[in-house]
Amino acid sequence: MINTKIFVFLLAIAGLVHAGEKSENIVVGTIETIHSNALNEDKKIWVYVPKPDAGRGPEKPVYPVVYLLDGSDHFLSMMGLMEKKCRGIGHSCPEMILVAVTHNNRQRELTPTKAGSYAQPEKTNENSGGGEAFSTYLEKELIPYINAKYPAAPYRVLVGHSLGGLTVMHNLINHSALFDAYLAIDPSMWWDNALLVKQMDVALKDGRFASKSLYLAVANTLAKGVSIDDARSGSDQKNLHIRSILKLVDTLDAHPQSGLRWKWKYYPEEGHGSIPILAEYDGLNFLFDFYKLADFVRLYDAKIDGAGEMKQHFEKISAYGLSALTRSGNDGWAGAAFFT
Question: Which of 19, 20, 129, 290 is most buried by a 10 A CB count?
């Protein structure tokens, strides 16, 4: 494994830095190059780790890990959201490590089977179908590497958009033990004649999704003048993408006893390319809706058993496997580790 080089962003906006003034680099993470035997190539990952706050929480904190596909495209938006939503007063999710996975050949790595393209479904793409090897890379190489090098907790989240969303669903269905929570952003469920929708219909019946969470974001990719109902019942190629996702929604709806905690949302004002940032925000809100303390200020009221309510709150968090994983609580509260 080839070691780290610092990942640096430069604040270089014309007119804001005057002659003679000192400028500094803004360092937000690292890039690492790791050789993958499963994929037979070197892989780059971008890693962000929260900065510890002295005197708050456990001396050696551990963090849940978000694994983000198409990492070079989505690293900054997800990192910014995590910095804002998961730190400080009123935070609504635990502080987490972000591992952004980049792809040398995204169509090969992010498709579970060899099949045709969206535009030419009858024409097989010879670069496709490496999704199982990619899952092996995640399970056997990347996750163990992150666990060994970084203060990683066992709780893991997988996030992906488009073909990345397809990969999220593939891993939820076929490798459900790898991650605890899944965020699929406008996934390409049409792939291989909607094979994963059919697989999901079978998988929902055997209990493999107990304690798992899924947020499914759907962009407006409707053809002009076509409604969602029309797309759902139609058969035209133009609406294949959204129709396949709606079939997934209907399949999930048909199995309420599956044990999967899930939610979907349609974004009528967002297209396939613009949806990720909003979906990331909403996805974190849903996947960690059990985590946020609704009104922590009231706990300072002398009439309220603040310590008791905090204890109950973190006992609830513990039910999701996050006990003793978080480092800082609201305004100096020690967090779940304080009560365990």
Answer: 129
DSSP character for 20? T
Distance CA 242, CA 248 (A): 10
Predicted pLDDT at 55 = 47
Q: How far apart (Å, rounded) are the C-alpha atoms in residues 220 and 142? A: 34
Backbone angles phi, psi at 33, to 5 degrees: -110, 120
Contact assessment for residue 222 and residue 229, using Cβ atoms and an 8 Å cutoff: no
Exposure of 225 by Cβ count < 10 A (0-12 exposed, 13-18 middle, 19+ buried)?
A: exposed
- Specify the DSSP element, H or E, that contains 131: helix 131-136
Mean pLDDT in residue range 10-30: 65
> Taking the model in full, what pTM does it have?
0.84
Q: Residue with structure tokens 């090098």?
A: 149
Q: What are phi and psi of 245, to 5 degrees?
A: -70, -40
